[in-house]
Design brief:
binds the ligand CC(C)(C)CCc1c(C(=O)O)[nH]c(=O)[nH]c1=O, 312 residues, globular, 4-stranded antiparallel β-sheet
C-alpha cells in the first residue's frame, strides 16, 4: 500500500520519522536516520548556544514496555551546528529535512529563525513550544497569550510554511482556545501533537528511588502509555484547524498505532520512545506493518482513511 504523504507542501516517501530529541543530536545520529527507512528526519531542538543538558540518568524506559520518562534538559550542539547541517544536506535525497528550534527566549527564536530564513534552504522549521517560558510561568505551550505573541513575531519572519510542536492539552476549552490562536497564522502549516506528558514521576519499588536524577525525578512521559492522549490531541486539532495538517506522535510502537494516528487525522507520524529502544530499524518494521494493515482493510492510500475515525 502507498504510505507516502505530503507535509507543508513537501513530499515524504513515507509518513514515518523520528520525534525531535531521539536519534538526532549529532551528525552521526542524523546519518543513522538518513540511512534508515524513515520518510524524513528532524533535528534535536536547537538553542542559540550549545548545551550539555541535565546530569544522567536523564532518560529511562519504564518496565513492561509501557513507555519512558526523560528530563534531558535540551542537550544540543547549538543552532549553528544544525544550520550548517541543513546547508550541507542532500535535498535531492527525496528524504526531506525538518529542523526543530527551541529558543530559551523570543529573542533567541527570532535570531535563529532569521538565520535559517537568510540561508534560504528547503528544510522545514518546527518550533518547539514546550520550550521554557520566563521562570515562574508555565511552558510556552500552556501560556496562550505568550504563544500567540511569539507566533505573531515568528510567523512573519519565517514566511514559508512551518509547524509547531505542542504539549498535550487535556481540556476541551484548551483545544478551542489554542486552535483559535493557531488559526490566525496562515503559514502555520502544521501542528505536531504531542510532546511528552509533562512532569511525571517514576519510582523504583525496590530501591524507593526516583528513576531519573534531574528535577527530583520529574520528567516528560512518552511511549505506549501516552497513546490515547496523543490520539485525542491529533483528532482535536484535526477537527479545529481546517486547511492545516497534524503530525501525530505519542505511543507508536507498531503499525497499529501508526494506523490509529492517521485515522485520528495525522498526515505524518513521529516515533520517539520506540525508536530510542529499538533503533532505526523500527521504521522499516512499522512501515511494513502499516502497509499490511492497509492491505488487509482494503485501503490503498493514507487519504482513504485519514481523519475518518467513526463516532457512535
Ligand atoms: C522540556 C524542555 C527541556 C523545556 C524542552 C526539550 C524537551 C526535552 C528535553 O530536552 O528535556 N524532552 C522532551 O521530552 N521534550 C522536549 O521538548
Amino acid at each position: 500500500a502507498d504510505i507516502s504523504t505530503t507535509l507543508a507542501g513537501v513530499k515524504l516517501p513515507n509518513l514515518l520519522f523520528n520525534a525531535s530529541g531521539v536519534c538526532c543530536q549529532t551528525e552521526a545520529d542524523l546519518k543513522l536516520m538518513v540511512e534508515s527507512e524513515s520518510g524524513s528526519l528532524i533535528t534535536k531542538s536547537a538553542t542559540f548556544e550549545q548545551r550539555d543538558g541535565n546530569p544522567s540518568p536523564r532518560y529511562t524506559p519504564l518496565p513492561g514496555g509501557i513507555g519512558s520518562i526523560n528530563s534531558m534538559g535540551l542537550p544540543n550542539e547549538g543552532y549553528e551546528y544544525y544550520l550548517n547541517y541543513a546547508k550541507n544536506y542532500d535535498y535531492s535525497s527525496k528524504k526531506p529535512l525538518f529542523i526543530s528550534l527551541s529558543g530559551l527566549s523570543l529573542a533567541d527564536n527570532v535570531k535563529m529563525c532569521e538565520a535559517f530564513v537568510a540561508a534560504d534552504l528547503p528544510c522545514v522549521l518546527e518550533i518547539n513550544y514546550s520550550c521554557p517560558n520566563v521562570p515562574g510561568k508555565p511552558q510556552m505551550g500552556y501560556d496562550l497569550e505568550a504563544m500567540e505573541h511569539s507566533l505573531s513575531v515568528l510567523a512573519p519572519i519565517i514566511k514559508k510554511p512551518f509547524g509547531i510542536k505542542l504539549p498535550p492539552y487535556f481540556d476541551i476549552a484548551h483545544f478551542d482556545q489554542a486552535a483559535a490562536v493557531f488559526n490566525k497564522f496562515d503559514n502555520l502549516a502544521f501542528v505536531t501533537c504531542i510532546n511528552s506528558v509533562g512532569n511525571g514521576l517514576a519510582i523504583d519499588f525496590e530501591t524507593e528511588e526516583a528513576l531519573i536524577k534531574p528535577k527530583d525525578g520529574f520528567g516528560g512521559l512518552g511511549g505506549l502509555m501516552v497513546l490515547n492522549t496523543a490520539l485525542a490531541n491529533v483528532n482535536a486539532f484535526h477537527r479545529r484547524l481546517p486547511g492545516k495538517q497534524v503530525i501525530g506522535v505519542g505511543g507508536v510502537v507498531s503499525g497499529k498505532e501508526a494506523f490509529l494516528h492517521v485515522l485520528a487525522g495525522a498526515s505524518a507520524v513521529q516515533i520517539g520512545t520506540q525508536l530510542k529502544e529499538e533503533g532505526p530499524g523500527v521504521f522499516a518494521r512499522i512501515a511494513k506493518e502499516l502497509s499490511d494493515i492497509m492491505v488487509a482493510k482494503g485501503y490503498k492510500t493514507l487519504e482513504d482513511f485519514r481523519g475518518k475515525v467513526k463516532t457512535l
